[in-house]
Amino acid sequence: MAGVAKGIRPNPTEGVSHPRLPKWKGQALKPEHVQGLLRGFPEGQDRTVFLTLVLTGIRRSELQQLRWADVDLIENRLRVVDSKTRSRERSIALTPMLAEELWQHRRRTRYGSDQERVFCAPKSGNVYCVEQRWWPALRKACKASGVVLPPGMRPMHDLGRVTSITNGVRANEHGSKL
User: Fold this and answer.
1) Is the pLDDT of residue 18 over 80?
2) Most exposed among 33, 65, 110, 121, judged by the fewest C-beta atoms under 10 Å?
3) Strands across the sheet with 77-81, in order?
């Protein structure tokens, strides 16, 4: 073996192609399942989180960073700052249902000033902890509504991004058809 240093063996995987992992394909809930789950949530912040996810498609980090100053309940717009988009900011139209839900949420919360988080820990105003608050609330809503989430579903991503975008396309919100 010319060119190989004494005592060092060549890489046995050299030239062998690496196996490709399958791309993750998100799972969207159908509108009737979204409606069922919504009925399973009691009034309150967790219900508003669910509606915000499925009606806007915002990411988990965007949801946790959202401030009341970013929610315009007159123009029914949500401003997402520090977005992954090129402009780093985007504006999302709010449905009348979500605008009303956010209005009621702001009236209920102790943390309703413009610089405070829209979704936060109820006693401290700190970051909304998905694992401690929302996932248990989602499980209770599933049980109450009889809706079974597909195996392997990533609740925050698939309910937010995938469900929102897929159902928006199905409803022809984006000018195209699925």
Assistant:
1) no
2) 110
3) 71-72, 77-81, 89-93
CA distances to 70, 158, 165 from 162, in Å: 23, 5, 5
Domains and CATH numbers, the chain: 31-170 (1.10.443.10)
Helix axes 135-145, 45-56, angle to 10 degrees: 90
Q: Are 36 and 42 in contact (CB under 8 A)?
A: no
> Which of 7 and 62 is assigned the larger pLDDT?
62
pLDDT at 154 over 90: no
d(CA 173, CA 75): 19
pTM (whole model) above 0.85: no
